[in-house]
Write a structure and sequence with these properties.
The chain is an all-alpha fold. The protein is built from three helices and no strands.
Length: 73
C-alpha cells in the first residue's frame, strides 16, 4: 500500500524501488520432482525422531520404558 507521507524517506524509497522491480521480474523457480516415496520416508523419519525425543524425556520409572527403550522397531 502506498502512503503519501512516506515520500522522501530513503528506506521507503529503496523499498518502493525493490517492490517495483519485483513486480516486473518474472521468476521461474526450479522445482525438482521428488518421488513420493522419498517424501514419505523423510516424513516418517522426522516423526520417529520427534517421538524418540519425547520418549527419551519420559522418566525411567515408566514400566514400558523399562521394557522398550526405543520407539522404532
Amino acid at each position: 500500500m502506498w502512503v503519501p507521507s512516506h515520500i522522501g524517506i530513503s528506506g521507503n524509497e529503496m523499498a518502493d524501488k525493490s517492490a517495483d522491480i519485483a513486480t516486473k521480474t518474472i521468476l521461474h523457480p526450479t522445482i525438482t520432482d521428488i518421488p513420493a516415496k522419498d517424501i514419505n520416508k523423510s516424513i516418517r523419519n522426522k516423526i520417529n525422531m520427534t517421538w524418540q525425543s519425547y520418549w527419551d524425556s519420559v522418566p525411567p520409572t515408566n514400566k514400558l520404558k523399562k521394557i522398550k527403550r526405543f520407539t522404532k522397531k
